[in-house]
Every structure is written in C-alpha cells, then in structure tokens.
Design a protein that fits this description.
The complex is a heterodimer of chains A (67) and B (182). Chain A has 67 residues and is an all-alpha fold. Chain A is 88% helix and 0% strand. Chain B has 182 residues and is of the alpha+beta class. Chain B has helices spanning 18-43, 56-84, 124-130, 154-171; strands at 10-15, 50-51, 54-55, 86-90, 93-99, 105-111, 115-121, 132-139, 145-152. In chain B, β2 (50-51) and β3 (54-55) form a beta hairpin. Classes of the chains: A mainly alpha (67), B alpha+beta (182). Chain A binds chain B through residues 1-3, 5, 8, 11-12, 15, 18-19, 22-23, 25-26, 29-30, 32-36, 39, 43, 47, 50-51, 54-55, 57-58, 61-62, 64-67, and chain B through 1-2, 10, 13, 51-56, 58-59, 61-62, 65-66, 68-70, 72-73, 76-77, 79-80, 83-84, 86, 88, 97, 99, 102, 105.
Chain lengths: 67, 182
C-alpha cells in the first residue's frame, strides 16, 4: 500500500486549521469573559507558544518522513 | 469582562477547586504518555525502515505530535470551562457565571440583600482535607437557587457574602418607622 504525500499534508492542514481556529476562539473567550487579565495573558501566551511549537515540530517531522 | 456599576467592585472570585480541574485532565496525560511508550519501544527496532517512500519513525512521531496538538486543544477547552465557570461577589451583587462548553454560558445575578439562606456542604474526607465543597444559596429573586459545586474554600466564600450583605445593610438608610394604623 502506498501512502501519497498529499494525504499527509492534508491531514496536517486539517489539524493546523482546527488548532488555529480553536486557539482564536479560546483566546477571544478568555479576554471577553475572564476576570483576571494577568492570568489570561499568561495562559494565552503559554497556550499559543505550545500550540505553535507543536505544529512547527509536526511540520518538520512531516518533511523528514517524506525526504 | 463582566460589566459592573461605577460604584461597584469585585470583592471575591470563587472557582471550582484545582483538584477538580486536575481530575478532569488526568486522562489527557495518560493519552499523551501511552503512545510515547510505544514509540520509544519501537524506535530502535524500526529506525531505518522505509515504507512506501515514507520514513517510518519520523512519520510515527509526526502522527504523535498531531495527536498531542489535539490533546492540548482539549486541555485548553477544559481549562476554559474551569476558568470561566465562576462566582463573583461584588459589594452589591452575586454573579454566577455558568460556562457550559465554549459557546454556551448562563449568567445569573442576584442582589446581595435578596439572599436569604446560604448552605455549605463538605462531602467526605477528601473534600475536608483539600478544603472544597458545595455551596447553595436561596434568594428571593427570580433565579431562586444558586449552586456551585466543588468550590475552593466554601466557608471563605460564605463568610464573604454574609459580610458584604451586612455592610450593605449598614450603608442603607433605615426604613421609616411606620406604626400600623389603628
């Protein structure tokens, strides 16, 4: 069975879009309805940094597995 | 942010105990660690394997990273639910924000002087040791009962509400003494 590389890129793309859309929704909700601005800012930065880091690592691993 | 009147300020903010958040997120750590053990186990065995033009081990790590991204998303979802589900005591009102999922929330507000009865329940040894419990409040308003389960330091919350209720009553001008007509 052959796995076409385009399938992997599509899988990555779907996860990327879901993570980005959810991140925007989360951060919007925290700022809109939260009461502690300092805690919200810390959580927003930590959450975004880890999500972006994971997506970047996944992209690099995708490139490695296809090379 | 919650909008308050100009002469109103937040006195106390109560959330569920962090232990509740911890128990709700335990499965995430288990789901994140289980494939990791499997991956580390097969890494030495299949390091140089190439299937259908794809390097096996980087491919598995790629899938694992996507899996962790999804778990991280679920973690943030649970944190949002925990963080936005809150009781806010101001010097005039009690605001109950009940977050149910991301886009479903219910906000009930009661004037402190309408609160009639406050009940604290600490169920069991774990709740006693970790200092959390359930608190329910009867009011004379439309939303008759306010309930917050597994709240951290329920006695502090109860004392704060009663203290603010007392100070509100002291500030209010006394009712005019009216004698019943005979």
């Amino acid at each position: 069975m052959t796995i076409p590389p385009s399938i992997l890129i599509v899988i990555y793309g779907i996860v990327f879009i879901v993570v980005c859309a959810a991140s925007i929704a989360f951060i919007y909700h925290w700022y809109a309805y939260g009461t502690d601005a300092k805690a919200i800012r810390k959580m927003s930065i930590a959450y975004s940094a880890i999500a972006a880091g994971l997506l970047l690592i996944a992209w690099m691993l995708l490139q490695t597995s296809l090379s | 942010m919650i909008s308050l009147a100009p002469d109103e300020h937040i006195v106390y903010t109560a959330r569920k105990h962090p232990f509740v958040f911890f128990t709700e997120t335990t499965f995430i750590f288990i789901f994140a660690l289980a494939p990791l053990i499997f991956l580390l186990g097969i890494e030495g065995y299949a390091n140089s394997q190439v299937f259908s033009g794809i390097h096996f081990i980087p491919f598995m790590w790629f899938l694992y990273t996507l899996w962790v991204s999804i778990l991280w998303l679920i973690f943030a979802y649970i944190w949002t639910d925990y963080y936005l589900d809150v009781w806010i005591v101001t010097n005039k009102h009690l605001i109950d924000v009940n977050q149910q999922g991301l886009f479903n929330r219910k906000i009930s507000t009661s004037r402190l002087d309408l609160i009639q009865d406050v009940t604290v329940e600490v169920p069991g040894i774990l709740a006693t040791m970790l200092k959390y419990g359930n608190i329910r409040m009867q009011t004379a308003g439309k939303e008759r009962e306010f309930v917050l389960n597994s709240v951290a330091k329920p006695y502090v919350l109860k004392d704060t509400i009663l203290k603010e209720q007392d100070s509100l009553a002291e500030k209010r001008p006394p009712f005019a003494e009216s004698s019943p007509s005979e």
